[in-house]
Amino acid sequence: MARQGCGGHTAGLLLLLLLLLPRALLDGPLVFVALVFRHGDRAPLASYPTDPHKDAASTLWPRGLGQLTEEGVQQQLELGRFLRRRYKAFLSPEYRREEVYIRSTDFDRTLESAQAILAGLFPEASPRGSEADWRPIPVHTVPVAEDKLLRFPMRSCPRYQELLRESTEAAEYQEAVEGWTDFLSRLSNFTGLTLVGEPLRKAWKVLDTLICQRAHGLPLPPWASPDVLSTLGQISALDIRAHVGPPRAAEKAQLTGGILLDAILANFSRVQSLGLPLRMVLYSAHDSTLLALYGALGLYDGHTPPYAACLGFEFRSYVGDLEDEDGGNITISLFYRNETHRPPLSLSVPGCPAPCLLGRFRQLTAPARPPARGAICHGSSRPATAPATVPLLAGAVAVLAVLSLGLGLLAWRPSCLRALGGTV
Length: 424
Ligand SMILES: *[C@@H]1O[C@H](CO)[C@@H](O)[C@H](O)[C@H]1NC(C)=O
Ligand SMILES: *[C@@H]1O[C@H](CO)[C@@H](O)[C@H](O)[C@H]1NC(C)=O
Ligand SMILES: *[C@@H]1O[C@H](CO)[C@@H](O)[C@H](O)[C@H]1NC(C)=O
Ligand SMILES: *[C@@H]1O[C@H](CO)[C@@H](O)[C@H](O)[C@H]1NC(C)=O
Fold this sequence. Notes:
The chain folds into two domains: 26-154 and 250-368, Phosphoglycerate mutase-like (Rossmann fold, 3-Layer(aba) Sandwich); 158-248, no CATH class. It is built from 14 helices and seven strands. The chain has helices spanning 11-26, 57-60, 70-86, 108-121, 158-169, 171-179, 181-191, 199-215, 226-244, 249-254, 257-274, 287-296, 358-365, 392-404, and strands at residues 30-38, 100-104, 280-285, 310-317, 330-337, 345-347, 356-357. Strands 1, 2, 3, 4, 5, 6 and 7 form a seven-stranded mixed β-sheet that branches. β5 (330-337) and β6 (345-347) form a beta hairpin. It binds 2-acetamido-2-deoxy-beta-D-glucopyranose (4 copies). One 2-acetamido-2-deoxy-beta-D-glucopyranose binds next to loops.
């Protein structure tokens, strides 16, 4: 999409054109939006044996471990109000069921977060208005064990386990873990946890507990110094990178975040080909969902999404002169909102500066999305049985569904990690 020519212009004018032209030409009217966000502030998921706040847990977190807090509700309301401002001209002033579709994972905190966002986005859905005007809005979900869209098969998917093993056996990973041997044995002593088996994951859980407590103004035990927290943050980032990054990041994505990415693209294709009035889909999920999506987009940068972080996909009709045969005249641009007081960051996938033509976006992300017959979950040790040809997403979902039945789904749990030092 490089623009050439302008030989006689001054450098300044050329720069100005380069800065202004692409946006001016490419930013056509919005046609569809997909949003994926993390739930709001929550109680820690767990405790550890020496946790000084362990016994007070039922007073500190009266709604229970892992539950959304009042602060979490406020964060989601605020995100909803931001969305109302951003899409004021795009959505009808009141909720219309044919325009907006909301799906959540089947956790209290994500279901509640979805409702809080909707109350911010559609004031009539806020119970704070008058009772006569209150209009509840449906939030769809499926049982956690059947959720192949927003919770990914991890432990239950032998192929994914193979890929993960390849990452954790890599020299770089092993060296990092070795470097933390002393740290982990001290951590084990501090916390009373035995860190054998999955030391990094257990270390992450400790970090989750500490960060939640700190965010709620609780004093941390003396050993939990800034240095210790920062090392725990690095450990957690290594663990996440092993799950969503290289080697074979694209194949990992086909079994995780690529499924959601594919569903979003399929949502838009359906809207377009059937001429549906649907304008927006909202997916209420977890940091693990966003991280997997980041992995599928090739954008994971070591940063963990804070509460209420929101990744948006905006589809616009393209008003430039370049025709995009694959994608129709549509561009896609991504934004990421992880801070309340700043405009969202605009993101672009490697190889396609925003706004990216949809056809090109599809091409670039194809390796990270499940193939048409569905991604293969069984390990390479088992002989491959050719799955019947089924439509794109249905295929992926069916294969994953069969293979993950009855097995534990979560290789890493949603966390309440925040950028260290950030305020909640
Ligand atoms: C940690 O180590 C000290 C000194 O060796 C010991 O007294 C203490 O009991 C240990 N704490 C835990 C929780 O294992
Ligand atoms: C969007 O995708 C989700 C997940 O596949 C699906 O449940 C929903 O029905 C889709 N909506 C449309 C309009 O395609
Ligand atoms: C894209 O726009 C051009 C010019 O506006 C038009 O000629 C072409 O048919 C459009 N292509 C598609 C696939 O809609
Ligand atoms: C927001 O995301 C950007 C990009 O990943 C990161 O650099 C920044 O630290 C994040 N801010 C917070 C508060 O998480």
